[in-house]
Amino acid sequence: MRLVIQGSAIRLQQLTHIHQLASAQQQQFIQVGEQAYLLPNQQEISLELRAFCQEQQIDVALVHDQHNLNHLGLAVMDMDSTLITIECIDEIADMQGLKPQVAAITESAMRGEIEFAESLRRRVALLQGLEASTLQRVIDERLQLSPGAQEWIAACKQHNIKTMLVSGGFDFFAERVKAMLGLDVAKANSLEIVDGRLTGRLLGNIIDAQAKADYLERFRQELGLRQDQVVAIGDGANDLKMMSAAGCGVAYHAKPVVQQQASYALNHVGLEGLAHLFAPLSSASTCH
Question: What is the mean pLDDT of residues 127-137?
Answer without folding.
Answer: 94
